Amino acid sequence: MFATAEPLWRWHEKNEQYLADRLPVANVGVLWSQRNVDFFGRDDAGDLVDDPWNGWMQALVRARIPAVPVHVDDVERVTGELGLELLILPNLAALSDAQVAAIRKFVAEGGSLIATGMSSLCDEAGRVRPDLALADTLGVSVPAAHAWRDPARRTAQAKEWMQTYLRLPRDAASRHEVLRGFTDTDLLAFGGVLEPLTLKQGRASALTFVPALALSPPEDVWFRQPETSTPGLVCSEGAGASRVAYLAADIDRRFARDQLPDHGDLLASLTRWCLRGELPLQVEAPGLIDCRLFKTRRGELVLHLLNLNNANAWKTPVQELVPTGPVKVRVKRSPSLTAARALVGSEKLAQRGRGEWYEVVVPSITDHEVLVFS
After folding, report:
1. Does residue 239 share a domain with residue 161?
2. Most buried residue, 154, 318, 344, 350, by most Cβ within 10 Å?
3. Domain end residue (candidates: 274, 301, 320)
4. Are residues 116 and 250 in contact, defined by beta-carbon separation less than 8 angstroms?
């Protein structure tokens, strides 16, 4: 057991100057709150809080979009310190008035926002508000008799799986741009339950709910109600560069459980749309790689690449290391950035400046690699 740790810590000691005294480089923040776990999730926090969070984080890792966790009390400080451009609220229901005000201010100043499910429906003690505190920002209201207002009903819906769908507009030309990757389908598998919400004036739904159909026998599997007006996704333009997306459908929770590629693709597409495609790095490689970029106080960029290509991804233990590569990395270029080197592998790196990007090719990654751009 001790022999396993020794080479790692010798490597850490050798490269410690690149592993400390640095800040993450990311423009996405995923909000969290222990109060949301304790006073909204309560005995069912795994279904109501953990699954939506895990679904978002896994989708961002899969899409190689750098993101940082942000405690909801620290929104103003962290967004200013890191220059975050997008905040994600994964079913973050329990929010105080002050926390809501900080999120509103972020959006009013041009920041973008993605909220899912019951985000802002409860106060900090978990008591249900008359409506979503962010209703005007998100463009929807929750009716008085909605299941989300009842703890037992909303928990039952979160735990349930049914053969339900989300319908894309039949006219492909009228589809929202977040759906561009779904040109060959009119329906997305869903699995959850949606009850009607009230859209604010001028808002439209990019996806609508299709109720459950029978699972068997085969001759009974047909749509009783092939479409509804119940909104599953609402996207809108805010102040300045701000974009706002509200995902009523619990795609984040479903992705954590079912790992359907379409669900991960939709979450990633929403993120890219809100950021207008602006990301601090690009990574092309086969399989699943976690990408974390940092900047030292000396100005170096340090990129961690973690190979997650194994049969136990998202779980423990890793039973086998499966090398992946080549891995092509691009980071935003600056005049002072002239070279990159690897801290783990010994192979020579192909690298060059290319327009606004600096490009490096790592031939292979077994477990992890750390690149330093100086």
Report:
1. yes
2. 154
3. 274
4. yes
List strand residue ranges (DSSP E) for the chain, in order: 22-24, 28-32, 68-71, 86-89, 112-116, 140-141, 165-167, 187-189, 198-199, 205-210, 231-237, 243-247, 281-284, 289-296, 301-307, 327-332, 340-342, 350-354, 357-362, 368-373
Residues 225, 211: contact at Cβ < 8 Å? yes
- pLDDT at residue 313, as a whole number: 78
pLDDT digits (tens, 9 = 90+) for 236-249: 997 788 999 999 99
Which CATH number belongs to the domain containing residue 8 in this structure?
2.60.40.1180
Q: Where do the DSSP E strands lie in 83-204?
A: 86-89, 112-116, 140-141, 165-167, 187-189, 198-199
Question: By the 8 A CB rule, do 233 and 245 touch?
Answer: yes
Whether residue 226 sits in one domain with residue 296: no
- 207 contacts: CB under 8 Å, gap ≥ 6: 166, 167, 168, 179, 188, 231, 232, 233, 249
Cis peptide before 217 (omega within 30 of 0): yes
Q: What are 304's strand-pairing partners? A: 292, 370
Domain harbouring 213, CATH code: 3.40.50.880
Q: What is the DSSP letter of 250?
A: -
How big, in percent rounded to 5, are the helix, strand and coil portions of the chain? 30, 25, 40
Helix axes 75-82, 97-108, angle to 10 degrees: 30
Tell whether 19 and 31 lie within a shared domain. no
Task: Tell me: do 220 and 347 sit in the same domain.
Answer: no
φ/ψ of residue 12, rounded to 5: -60, -45
Q: Using N-to-C axis directions, what is the helix angle for 261-274 and 51-62, rounded to 10°?
A: 80
Task: Report the number of distinct structural domains present in the chain.
Answer: 2
Model-wide pTM > 0.70: yes
Longest dimension (CA), the chain: 67
Percent of the chain exceeding pLDDT 70 equals 99
**Same domain for 104 and 116:** yes
* 339 and 231 co-located in one domain: no
